[in-house]
Design brief:
The complex is a heterodimer of chains A (166) and B (127).
Chain A lengths: L1 H8 L8 H15 L7 E2 L10 E10 L3 E8 H12 L7 H20 L5 E4 L3 E3 L9 E11 L2 E10 L2 H5 L1
Antiparallel strand pairs in A: 1-6, 2-3, 2-4, 2-5, 3-7, 6-7
Chain B lengths: L1 E5 L3 H13 L3 E5 L2 H10 L5 E4 L8 H9 L8 E6 L4 H10 L3 E4 L4 H10 L10
Parallel strand pairs in B: 1-2, 1-3, 3-4, 4-5
Helix pairs in contact in B: 2-3
Classes of the chains: A alpha+beta (166), B alpha/beta (127).
C-alpha cells in the first residue's frame, strides 16, 4: 500500500529538472552547433513574442509527456543552416526537419530519465505549441538566446495530482 | 570503404554522412529501414550501416533484425546511431544484432572512436 501511495504522489520534477534539460541542450549544442555563436541560457523565463515554430516529440509509457523546442520564426532558418552547415536559402522542408531533429535529440535523452518510458514519437513541427493534458506539469524549462533571438525548451510530463486526489 | 546512413532526418543523414566522408568513406543514404533494405538488395554490400531507431515505415530495430536474419548480409557491420539512450534499449539493439551503439548527440571524435573499435576506421583517418 505504501508503495502505491508513493507512486501516486511522485511528481514530474522527481525525474526531470531544469539542470538535466540544460545539460542535454548544452551537449547537443557542443556536438552540432559548436562552430556557431554560443547559446546563452537565460536566468529568467522569456516568453517568445510574435510568430514561432515549435517542434515536439511525445514520450509514451507510464509517465507520458511531450518535449518541445520553440523558436522565433525568423530564427528557424539560420538554426537549420547552422545544423546543416549550409549557406544560403533553405527550403521549408529542411527547416522543419532540422528543428524536428533538435526536438528528437533532446526528447530522446529526456526519455532516458523517465521511468518505464515507452517509444518516442516522431517529431512534429507546427506554428504553435501543442496543447497539454489537464494533468500535465511543466517538469523543466530552458530559455536561451542565440544570435540575439530566443529559443525555449520545455518538458511536460503527466502529473500525479489527479491521482493523489483520488 | 562504403557506408549506408539510415535516418529519417535529412539533417542527421547529412551530419553523419559528412563525418563519414571526412574519414574517407563513400556514403549512400536511406530514409527508413525499408528503403535501406532496397539499397542492400541492389548492392554492392556496404562495410557499415549507421541506423537510427525511430523512423516511419520500418524502424531501426526491425531493420537490424531483418539484416541479421539474411546470411547474405553477414559481412555488414551495424551501428545504431539514435537518441534512444536507455540501457534497456541498448541491450535490445545489441541482442538483435547491432555491433555498436552511439547515442545522439555525438561528437565526430566519438564516432571515430566507435569505428576504431570496430576496425572500420579507414587507413589514414585519425581516431
Amino acid at each position: 500500500m505504501t508503495e502505491l501511495v508513493e507512486e501516486f504522489y511522485d511528481e514530474p520534477t522527481d525525474y526531470v529538472e531544469d539542470e538535466a534539460l540544460g545539460q542535454i541542450v548544452e551537449a547537443m549544442w557542443a556536438s552540432y552547433f559548436a562552430h556557431t555563436e554560443f547559446l546563452l541560457p537565460a536566468f529568467d523565463p522569456h516568453d517568445i513574442e510574435g510568430d514561432i515554430l515549435c517542434a515536439s516529440v511525445t514520450i509514451s509509457g507510464a509517465r507520458p509527456g511531450i518535449v518541445t523546442v520553440s523558436v522565433e520564426r525568423d530564427l528557424a532558418s539560420p538554426l537549420a543552416a547552422a545544423l546543416l552547415q549550409e549557406d544560403g536559402e533553405l527550403e521549408d522542408e529542411d527547416i522543419y526537419d532540422s528543428l524536428g531533429e533538435v526536438a528528437n535529440i533532446v526528447g530522446g535523452n529526456i526519455k532516458a530519465l523517465v521511468p518505464d518510458a515507452g517509444p518516442l514519437g516522431l517529431p512534429v513541427v507546427a506554428t504553435a505549441k501543442p496543447l497539454h493534458g489537464a494533468s500535465d506539469r511543466l517538469a523543466a524549462r530552458m530559455d536561451a538566446n542565440w544570435q540575439g533571438r530566443w529559443l525555449t525548451f520545455e518538458v511536460w510530463l503527466a502529473g500525479g495530482s489527479e491521482n493523489s486526489e483520488g | 570503404m562504403r557506408a549506408l546512413v539510415v535516418d529519417d532526418s535529412r539533417a542527421m543523414r547529412k551530419i553523419i554522412a559528412g563525418a563519414l566522408r571526412k574519414l574517407g568513406y563513400e556514403t549512400v543514404e536511406a530514409a527508413d529501414g525499408a528503403e535501406a533494405l532496397k539499397v542492400l538488395e541492389s548492392g554492392p554490400l556496404p562495410d557499415l550501416a549507421t541506423v537510427d531507431w525511430n523512423m516511419p515505415v520500418m524502424d531501426g530495430l526491425t531493420f537490424v533484425t531483418q539484416v541479421r536474419a539474411n546470411r547474405d548480409y553477414r559481412a555488414l557491420t551495424l551501428m545504431m546511431v539514435t537518441t534512444e539512450a536507455e540501457h534497456g534499449q541498448i541491450v535490445r539493439a545489441l541482442a538483435a544484432g547491432a555491433h555498436e551503439y552511439l547515442i545522439k548527440p555525438f561528437t565526430v571524435e566519438s564516432l571515430e572512436e566507435k569505428l576504431s573499435l570496430l576496425g572500420l576506421l579507414p587507413e589514414g583517418a585519425q581516431a
